Amino acid sequence: MKEIKVNSKKSYSVFITNDVNLLRGLIDTYKLHSLFILTDENVYNLYGKFLDKLFPNILGLKVIKPGEKNKNINTIMDIYDSLIEKNADKKTTLVAFGGGVVGDIAGFIASTYMRGIKLIHVPTTLMAQCDSSIGGKNGFDYKGYKNIIGSFYQPEFVFSNINFLKTLDDRQYLNGLAEIIKYAIVCDINLLNYINQNKKALSERESDKLFHIVYQCSKIKAKIIEEDEFDLNKRQILNFGHTVGHAIESYFNFEILHGEAVAIGMITEAYMAMKLKYIDEKHFNKIVELISYFNLPTKIKVDDIELLFSIMHKDKKKTGEKLKFVLPYDLGHAIITTDLKENFIFD
Ligand code: NAD
Ligand code: ZN
Question: Who contacts 208 (Cβ-Cβ below 8 Å, separation ≥6)?
Answer without folding.
Answer: none
